[in-house]
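Risk register update: the risk that structure generation would not scale has been downgraded. Supporting records follow, first protein first.
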Amino acid sequence: IALPVGGIQMQYLWRNQLGDVYSLGLGSAACLGAAAATMSGWCSLTVGSFICTLICTIVCFFVTLHVNTQSLITFGILFGTFIGSLGTIVVTNAPNADLLKKYYLWGAANFNLEGVTAGDIAFSLVLFVIGFVVAIWTAKALTRHFNGETELSNLHKALLLLAIMFLVTSAVSICGPIGFISLGVPNLSRIICKSTDIRKHYLISSAMGTYVNSYCAPRECFYECMLSKNINVQHNFTLLCLEWFRTLATTDDVDERNMASHEFALKAANEDAKKSFNEVKNSVVKEIKGQYK
C-alpha cells in the first residue's frame, strides 16, 4: 500500500506520470541506510533506512524551496544516482559474505521478513500511519494542484515530500526496494480509472499493489520448488551445484568475503574426502530419481 500511494502522490505533485518515490532519491537513500545498517551493525534495517532517507529528504526539502518542478526533477535524478553509487560502495566493501548475503536477500524483495524484528515492524507501522494520514488529509489539495486549479507552494511541496518519505521508509526498510510498484501500479490505476480524484487512485493502487506483491511473494521454499521441476532439470541442477562447490574449494581467488565458504568447501572436498564427496553426489541423484519412479 505504501509504495503505490507514495508513487501516485509524486505523480500528482509533479504533474508527471513518470514520477515515483525514487524520483528524488528517496528509495536509493533507504537502500543506502539498509546497507550501512547491515554492514556496520550500528542499528536495525528500519532505523538505518529511516535516518538516511530523512537526511535525503532534508536535502530535497531545502532544494524544493528554491527551484521549480522541472529543475527539482533533474536534481532528483542526479541526486538519486549519487546516493545509489554510495550504496554500491558500501555493499562492495562488505566485511564478510554473511552480511553481503543478508543484504542481497533483503534487496531481492524480503517478503519473508528475514532479519526483521518486532521493533522494526512496529516502527515501520508508525511511519506508515503518519504518511498515510497525511496522504488522506492532503488529497483534495493534491487533486486541485494536479488539475491546475491551484498551485501548491514550495513549502507545501516540501512538507509533502517529508510525508512521502515516511511511506517509502515504512515499506522499503522491511521488504526491500520494490521499484516497479511505485511507478507501474499508479500508472495502471490511471489507465483503469480516468477520474483525477487522487483518493480513488489511492484505493485502486493500494488494491493492485497488494495483489501484485501477494502474487510475487514466494510461497514455497527453494527445495520444494525444485521438486516440482522436471527430473532432468533437478538432476542437472544438482550436478551443477556440486561442481560449483568443488570449484569453490579449489579456487585461488579468496578474500575476506568468501574465505569462510572456501574453507568449508575445502574441508568437504579435500583429497581424503573425495570418495565421500562422490558418494554424496550419487546418493542425492539417486534420491531425486527415486521420487519419480
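Supporting record for the second protein:
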Amino acid sequence: SVGSVSLFTFAYTIQAVPLTLIGLTFSVAAFPTLSKLFSEAKNTINGEFGTEFKTTVRKIFALTTITAVVFIVFRLPLIDLLLGSGAFTQYHVLRTGWLLAIACIGMVPAGMVQLYLRALYATGNTKRPFIATFITAISTIIITVFGLYLIKNTSLDFWLAQKTGLIITDTNVLILMFAVATSSIINVLLLRGITKKYLGVTGTIDFKIVLKTLFIAIISNAVAYAFYAFFTNYKGIEISSHIIFILCLILDSFMIYVLAKNLNLPEVYEYMNVYISKLSKMFNYAGRIFVKQA
C-alpha cells in the first residue's frame, strides 16, 4: 500500500539506533582485544578469549533486551514524538508502531550477530560468516514469500487487521518486517553454531542474568507506562503528551538503574554510569557558564 516502504524504513531506522549504540559499539570495541588474545595464544582459543567474548555477550544481551522492551511498550509515543506532525497522521503512527514492535523482536539477536562476526573475524575466519549471512538472506526471502502466500490464500490478512487495527491492505508490510526480524534469529543461531564448532565458545548466558534482565525490563516499563497512561488520560491538568512521555522515560531509566544496582547487574548500571557521568559534566559546565553570565 501507499507509504509502506517509507514507514518500514522509519521503523527499521529507529530500532537500528540502539543496535549501533550497543551491539555494534561493544562488538567493535571487543574486536582488537579478541584479535590480540588470539594472536598472543599463537592462533589458538584460550580461556581469556572465551571470557572476553562471554562478558561482551552478557552486556549486549542485557542492554538490548531492556531497550527492546522500552521500544515495544512506548512505541506509539516515541514515534509520535519523532515523526508525528504534518501529513504524518495518527494512523501512520499506528502502522509504524506495529512495524517497530516486530522489528524489536530481532533487536537482541541482531546485536549478538555483530559480536559473533567480530569474534570470527578476529581469528581470520571470514568464509563461514559469509555463508551464514548468505543463508540468512535466502531465508528472509523464503519467509517473505511464504508469508505473502499465506496472506493471499488464507484469512491471515483479516486476522492481522483485526488484531492490529490496520487496514487489510496495510498488513502485507508486517510480513516483510517479520521476515527481517526472524532472519536475525536464524543468523545468530548459525553463527553460534559456527563459533561453537570452530572456536569452542558459545556465549551462553547464565540463567540468573536472563531472569534479572527480564525482571528489570518488565517491572520498570510496567510502572513507567502506568504513569504515562494515567497522566495522558487525567483530565485535571493539561500537559503535552510529549512532555509526559519524556518524563516517563526519565522515570523508566531511573527505575532500570536502581533495579540493576540492587539486583547486581553491572552489565546495565555500569553502562548507564557512563552516560550519567557525561550528563553531570555537561550540566556542571552549563551551570558555570550561566553563573558567569549572571
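The mean pLDDT is 89. On this basis the risk owner (M.S.) recommends closing the item.
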